[in-house]
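Shipment paperwork, digital attachment
Item: protein structure file
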Amino acid sequence: MNRRVLVTGASRGIGRAIAYQLATDGFAVTVHCRTGRAEADAVATGIAAQGGVSRVLQFDVRERAACRGALEADVAAHGAYYGIVCCAGVTRDAAFPALTDEDWDIVIETGLDAFYNVVHPLTMPMVRAKQGGRIVTIASVSGVTGNRGQVNYSAAKAGVIGATKALAVELASRHITVNCVAPGLIETGMLDQMPLEKALQGVPMNRVGQPAEVAAAVSFLMSDAASYITRQVLGVNGGMI
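Attachment content:
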């Protein structure tokens, strides 16, 4: 039987690349989406066309009750997950004095609150299954260093890093590893509004990364080869830090 893994934010960008990679690795992938159902269905169909196992689960990671309800029903129907990849995230960039309450709330809710909303209802089923497991969060170089114009995003991702490290300590004895991947500049829609030429001045490799390169890092952390790696932050950033 394929080990089951949930990938949030899997309908596009980095999440989509992770979903395809983990399916290639032999996992049964639950493709999560909030609104992009057609895109998520296309990912699941693409995985199936390549011989993989996939299904779609739709809910809003910001809505705690709805999130918990969807995940508890999913576990009741299909069993505990072996792996979780928390990839959902948004940006609302602005200088701090120009941030609105909405800018702050949506980024924190999607980037940080979602960690609790998704991982909390899935943790005890993983523990009770007594098969170990893997939890990988997707943060950002901004959560490590902070970034101008991203006080909200930096705070959300720094919080995810802290939560990841703390949960890793709690679950280590259960053979459930908890790690974080912190990408730098990756070719996704998040780069559309960024002055890329200037941003690349801070990247020693002088290029943006590809979603597949982040997916490769997640693939390793989800593998049996990474069974002694936990509480770590793996940068995929071309040498930015």
